[in-house]
Amino acid sequence: MKTWNIYLSGEIHTNWREDIAAGAEAAGLAVSFASAVTHHEASDDCGVAILGEEPNKFWHDNKGAKMNAIRTRTLIQDADIVVVRFSEKYKQWNAAFDAGMASALGIPTIIMHQDEHAHALKEVDAAALAVTKTSAEVVEILKYVINGELAGYTDKA
Fold first, then answer.
1. 41 exposed, middle or buried (CB, 10 Å; 0-12, 13-18, 19+)?
2. Could you count the other beta carbons within 10 Å of the beta carbon of residue 54?
3. β-bridge partners, 5
4. What integer best gives the mean pLDDT of the chain?
5. CA 107, 109, 115: angle at the middle one, nearest 5?
6. Distance between CA 90 and CA 10 in Å, rounded?
7. Is the pLDDT of residue 151 over 90?
8. In the prediction, which pLDDT does 156 show?
């Protein structure tokens, strides 16, 4: 049986990743999850912590972004599905980039956001293969895609 690689991109301030992982485990799905580094300060400061301080904030952020891109690009390229969550409170420009990268690579994307972002994310949504609002919906999509299971339907063979 294939183990599906699922990359979880997007906001890092809620437990949506854990909710999807718990739902997938409860459903017995053969999945492996990966994501960017979700410790905000570590992600921001990795470049200067490893390669040395930068007096200019642009170069500080540039070093970190490039180091994070090594992880992100590699994991997205290895993913079977990319799930991208946009939260209500924060602007996740990196998540939009991840969604675009996955789409350009032909990797199926599932986008999560609430209705208030529908207009701002209309191009991202148009490229996605599913647009959801909840982690539970993502788990149901994964159950259907991976195991062919749809709640309320059974084989009539």
1. exposed
2. 15
3. 32
4. 94
5. 165
6. 10
7. no
8. 64
Do 129 and 108 contact (CB within 8 A), yes or no?
A: yes
Question: What is the rounded distance in angstroms from the CA atom of residue 142 to the CA atom of residue 30?
Answer: 10
Task: Determine the Cα–Cα distance for residues 148 and 123; give it in Å rounded to an integer.
Answer: 28
What span, in angstroms and rounded, lies between the C-alpha atoms of 8 and 110? Answer: 10
For residues 29 and 92, give the distance between their C-alpha atoms in angstroms, rounded to a whole number.
28
pLDDT digits (tens, 9 = 90+) for 12-36: 889 999 999 999 999 999 999 999 9
* pLDDT of 154 over the 90 cut: no
Distance CA 125, CA 120 (A): 10
Q: What domains are there in the chain, each with its CATH number? A: 4-42+78-147 (3.40.50.2300)
Q: Contact 101/76 with Cβ under 8 angstroms?
A: yes
pLDDT of 157:
58
The tokens 């799930």 sit on which residue?
83
Q: Does the structure show a pLDDT above 90 at 67?
A: yes
**Strands of the 130-132 sheet, one edge to the other:** 31-35, 4-10, 81-85, 109-112, 130-132
pTM score, whole prediction: 0.93
Q: Which two tokens stand for residue 157?
A: 């063979």
Residue 141: beta bridge partners?
A: none
* pLDDT for res 137: 98
